[in-house]
Task: structure prediction
Amino acid sequence: MNSSRECKMSNSPKPVATRCELDENLEILRRIPIFSAIPLQRLRLYAYLGKRVSYGAGQFIFRQRDSGDRGYIIVSGRVQVIREFSDHSVLLNEFKEGDFFGGLALLSDINRLFSARAVTSLECLTWDRESFQKLLVQFPEVALQILDMMIKRIIQMEEKLLQTQLHECVCG
Result:
């Protein structure tokens, strides 16, 4: 039986290989700015270690305050990033195909700062912390780019939260 990482052959009279998941993962990574500068041989390792996961519309990928050890790249679909409060929720961001999210969990054992919910049916390429950190130790050039992106996103989300809370204080 073929694994999801092996290329599959067509049953047509002329055997024609379809694109295998490893090649598809590699192409996805080559289009993502933080991964695109990685040499191809190294990028193949990231592509190989990535796992595909699917979620239905409305399904939570993770919830705020959960511990997590995965980061995600959206292959298809959309994700909403939500900060939940006891009496309401605030939409902080929406991610689409090619966006990377949840990356803090790859770098540290922390609780999630927000919830992530599939807006549409969703397919993601995901890594667990242990595998990702092994690659970062061998090839550290990605770590600074991921950290820079995550810090900028956290600042954007904090600003949005502060604006929302300020609006509620003034109006409410």
Notes: Residues 1-6, 8-18 have pLDDT under 50 and may be disordered.
